[in-house]
Structures are given as C-alpha cells and as structure tokens.
Design brief:
heterodimer, A: alpha/beta, D-Maltodextrin-Binding Protein, domain 2, B: mainly alpha, MetI-like fold
Chain lengths: 351, 262
C-alpha cells in the first residue's frame, strides 16, 4: 500500500462515515416520520405513498420475521417503532406486559367499518389496544383430480383411501384444534374430557398421515406427492399459482382464523400519526385495495363489496359469514397450555 | 509408481459440497416457477421484479454502507491490537487482552445480540445504523486481529530495524515498510470483516433501529410471504459482487505486494 493509496483510504473512510451520519439522520428533519414495524410486503406501496402525501409525513417501514423475535427485541428495550403488526396471540402477551398504548377512538372514525362478526371472536373485541389488520385461515387443500368426492370437513383425514398421502400441521394448537372442531368443541377448550376425545381423533387420523409437517407440505402438494394437506391459506394461495389443480376449502365445522393486528407501541413518538395510519388502512376503499395486493382479507365489512369476484369466491381468502362465525382465533391459554403439550407428546409417541 | 487418486477425489467431493448448493440457487434464480419444485422455463422475470422493489435496494444500500464502515474501523482497531499483542506477547496484560479478543468468537450470537441491545439501551443510544456498526465492529475486530496476528508471527522485523537504522522515524517505518508488507494480510482481514458484516442476521436484528433494515433482515422477513425466487436472484447478484470484490482485491494485493517488495 503506497502513500497515496493510504491517503485515499482515509478520505474514503471519512466520506463513508459522513454518509452514514447523513443516512442515520434521515435527511428530512422537517417532516414527521412514522416508523412501522411489520412483515415484509405487508402493505401496498402505492397506499403508503398516498398516506405520505395526504399527511405530509414520511413512512419508514422495517421488517421482522417472527413474532417471538420481535417481542424479544422490544422486551429488551428496543424502541423507535410507532406502529407494529403482531399476530393476535402476541398482542395479548404484549398488552399484558404493558408494551402497548390504549387507542384513542376519536382519531379512528373508520373503525365503524370493521366486521363485527370478526370482532365477536377476536381477542380484543372492544379494540381497546389493537385493531385487526389482515386475516388468514387454516383449512384443507387438496388436488381436485386425485381426490374423489371431497367434502369440506375435517373428517377427510379419516379417509383410508388417501392413506400415506396426507399431511397435517406439526403444530399442537392447530392440529388438536382441528380435532376439537371436528367434534364440535371450541378449539380453545381446556376441558380435559374434550381434549382426550380430540386426542383419540388425532391418533385415528395419524394412522392415515404421511407426517406432521409445517413447511414442505406446500411443495409436496404442488408436486403431487401429497393429495390432501392441512395448511395455512396464505401458503396455499401461493402454491395455487404453480399447480391449478390445488383447491383450498374451509371445513364446514370451522377452523382457525389468525389475524395480525395494528398496535401502537408504548414508546411510540408519533402517536397521532400512527392513529391516522390505522384509520387510513380501514377506509373501505383502501382496505379493499390492500386486500387485493396482499391476498389476505382485511376484516372491513364495507370493503367486502368492493373486492373483486376472484377474491370473494376464494375460500382461502373470503369465508361466507355463516362459516366465519364457526371459526375461532387461537387464544393464549396460559397454564392450560401444559394439557395440550402433554396430549401432543402422547400423539407424537403414538400412545 | 501410480499416484494416489485419493487427494483428487477428496478435492472433488469438497468442491461439490461447497458449490452445488450455490449452483442450484443460481439455476433456480432463472426458473420461472415460484416454488423451486419443477422447472417451468428459463426466465429473467425475478431479476426484472427485483428492480421494482425499492425496499430491497434500500436494504442493500444500508448493508453495504454499514459493511464498508465496519471494515475500515475494524481494520484500524484490529491491526493495532494485533500489533500490541505481538509486541508485548509475554506481558500478563496482553494475555488478558488476547482472551478479550478471542471471546467474541466463542460467545453465541443471540447472547451477544441481546446483551449489546441492552447495553445500547442502558447507554441511551438511539438504535439505528450507528448501533449496527458498533455491534459489527465488536466481533469483526477479533477476526481482523487474529488474521493480522498470524501474519505478524512470520514477519521479519529486522527490515523495520534496518529502516530505522537508515534514518526513518517510527511513523515513516510503519507507513513505508510495515503497512505495505502487511497489505495482503490486511486485505484478507478486511474481506473477512466485510463478509461477516454483510452476512450477519442475529446480532443485527437485535441492534437495528427504525429505518436501518439490512438485507439479511429483509430477506428473512420475505420468506414469510414466500417470494423465494426473488431472494435467489438477489443472492446471485450478491455472489457476483462478492466474486468481483475478491478478484479485485487479489489483483490489488498482488500489485501492492510487488510495489512494497521492490
């Protein structure tokens, strides 16, 4: 390294440090900045641009990849995020830890559009600290050319003609929940008798399954290795683009609805702007546009008529109201969780 | 006498083990299918889509900027600590220093991530690009120091002494003799620091603040919505950049070594 190249290096370092400083300051001090912490691609970019223009602000979006990691980070003291979109069960936990702000309803006139049927089964029906944002459900996907006389029921897992070609989720709450629904119980049941019956059902289904699995089932059904799978509608919608033979159905007994909620962090600095954003995404037109982009359903009842036919007839996204009423949201069961763990271990061991 | 084919076979197996996954990734980045299961034809569509994803480019910009600063800072700090470690190898203080340098290599990442985050919060630092740089420097120093220390151990210090005999002061001797001779080692250490910084997910996730999403954080989050081919295309481009950098640095260090050697 010669004299000049060393000097060039030092100058380069100086420039990089200055650039870093400038990037850290964000450049535009005049405009307020709303910091959103969410999943990747979870709001339509055009809508963000519209929100920025309407409110004279800048929106900065950062992403996380799991509820647990996001929780661990915020719990350890990370701050600076205004609006966060955790899944409902995580919202309950964050609320119990005092990490969220109560919402000011005066700033949220658009909440009148929210589907009251969904609110009835949600974990925060009064919307004190969270507003539902996007829903998905867990149901059954199958290959329509290979599975004869399909019925939308969890009872499909009893079909011995599909032996070895079906998969259920490797998730105790989802799979025991499916059996509880099949028997007509709540999937948040903590009644040991109901749970024991559900265990027997899952054990019976287990004899027909290839395996309990959470990821590979997507490619498995796309390639035709599996004929019938228990899976998340968001995943199935993606593989449907690969294999048009895949059909998603919601069992008539009902199933799990998962919802990511909009919440405002206790440490938020742009509280009013965060409210404005929640209000903005629940404008029926915006909600419909966002649903078309994300392909998850925003539970905004006045947005439903604005949705395209393709979405409204897709059971992976849009459920008939009678069916949705039979679905439930997984609640955090606290100490009763141990019951599920015990039963799940017994199922895995085949006892 | 017939030469054993064993070394050849082992080399081949190792190369396949290292390169096959990367080759699959590159091939899949040209696959029109969204899921890597079946080949649905050659296509540049994922590359085209990549150019319409400002969030990814923003993350890439953050990542490269951080990596650049981290490399420079940890090169300076790591090299000076390697010099101290080498010069005063026998002292008890330096043995303690060596342990300190070594520790980040063996501490689990998750532990380091959370503890750094808690330290930053306690210190009242605003999370952002700066905290990521600080965190990355803490572990990159160790790698730089150990690589440079290795070079110093077979360094002939008599040439530095010769320079001093001929009238060079300490600073001139360091700049004109020591640094040029160490350049290949510094280049290697810098590359390691750069790669580690670009690559790190766990620690970065914890210390990143609003507006400081890096490429690995973005990529992990994208997996939830499953646009994997986009990630393949991005990785292929990153590989190109990495190979370019390595190639360039090798050429530079070769010419640098020659210049310094004459």
């Amino acid at each position: 390294m010669t004299h000049t190249s060393l000097r060039r290096l030092v100058i380069g370092a100086g420039i990089a440090v200055i650039a870093l400083g400038a990037a850290a300051c964000g450049g535009s001090k005049a405009q307020p900045v709303l910091h959103i912490y969410t999943w990747a691609d979870y709001v339509k970019p055009d809508l963000v641009a519209r929100f920025e223009a309407e409110n004279g602000c800048t929106v900065v979006i950062d992403t996380f990849d799991s509820n647990e990691a996001m929780y661990a980070k915020l719990k350890a003291g990370a701050s600076g995020y205004d609006l966060i979109t955790p899944t409902s069960y995580m919202v309950s936990l964050m609320q119990s830890q005092g990490m969220l702000q109560p919402l000011n309803r005066d700033w949220l006139p658009n909440l009148i559009h929210i589907d009251s049927d969904y609110l009835a089964i949600s974990l925060d029906p009064k919307m004190d600290h969270s507003v539902p944002y996007m829903m998905t459900n867990t149901g059954i996907a199958y290959l329509k050319s290979k599975v004869a006389d399909f019925k939308p029921s969890w009872g499909m897992f009893d079909r011995t003609d599909l032996k070895g070609r079906t998969v259920m989720l490797n998730d105790m709450r989802e799979t025991i929940g499916a059996a509880l629904k099949f028997l007509g119980y709540s999937l948040n049941s903590t009644n040991p008798e109901e749970l024991n019956k559900a265990k027997d059902v899952v054990l019976r289904w287990r004899a027909n399954l290839a395996k309990f699995e959470n990821e590979q089932y997507k490619t498995g059904i796309a390639s035709g290795e599996f004929l019938l799978v228990h899976g998340y509608s968001g995943d199935i919608l993606q593989v449907q683009g690969e294999n048009a033979d895949i059909v998603f159905a919601m069992p008539q007994e009902g199933g799990v609805i998962s919802c990511d909620d909009l919440v405002i962090a206790k440490t938020a600095s742009e509280v009013k702007l965060a409210h404005a954003f929640i209000n903005f995404v629940h404008d029926p037109k915006v909600a419909a546009e966002n649903t078309e982009f994300i392909q998850y359903l925003c539970p905004n009842k006045d947005a439903y008529p604005l949705l395209s036919e393709a979405i409204r007839t897709n059971p992976g996204i849009f459920l008939a109201p009678e069916l949705r009423a039979k679905c439930e949201v997984l609640a955090d069961l606290g100490a009763a969780n141990a019951l599920y763990v015990k039963i799940w271990d017994e199922i895995k061991a085949g006892k | 006498m017939k030469r054993s084919r064993f070394p050849f076979l082992v080399t081949g197996a190792v190369l396949i083990f290292f390169w096959l996954p990367i080759l699959v990734l590159i091939i899949q980045s040209f696959n029109a299918a969204r899921f890597g299961g079946a080949w649905q034809g050659f296509s540049f569509k994922w590359y085209a889509r990549l150019f319409h994803e400002p969030a990814i480019w923003e993350a890439a910009r953050n990542t490269l900027l951080i990596a650049l600063v981290v490399t420079l800072v940890s090169l300076v700090l790591g090299t000076t600590s390697a010099l101290a470690l080498h010069r005063f190898a026998k002292s008890r203080l330096q043995r303690f220093h060596y342990t300190l340098i070594y520790t980040p290599l063996v501490v689990p990442e998750i532990l380091m991530g959370i503890s750094l985050l808690m330290a930053f919060v306690a210190a009242g630092l605003r999370l952002g690009m700066i905290t990521i740089v600080l965190a990355h420097v803490t572990f990159c120093i160790s790698y730089v120091a150990l690589v440079v220390l290795g070079r110093l151990q077979d360094f002939d210090f008599t040439i530095v002494e010769a320079a001093r005999d001929l009238g060079a002061n300490g600073w001139t001797a360091a700049r004109r003799i020591l640094l040029p001779m160490l350049a290949p080692g510094l280049a290697a250490a810098g590359l390691i620091a750069f790669t580690l910084s670009v690559d790190d997910f766990v620690i970065t996730f914890f210390v990143a603040g609003p507006g400081a999403t890096t490429l690995p954080i973005r990529v992990y989050s994208m997996i939830k919505h499953g646009a994997t081919p986009l990630i393949n295309a991005l990785s292929t481009l990153l590989l190109l950049v990495t190979f370019g950098t390595v190639f360039l640095s090798q050429r530079l260090s070769k010419s640098g070594a020659m210049e310094g050697g004459i």
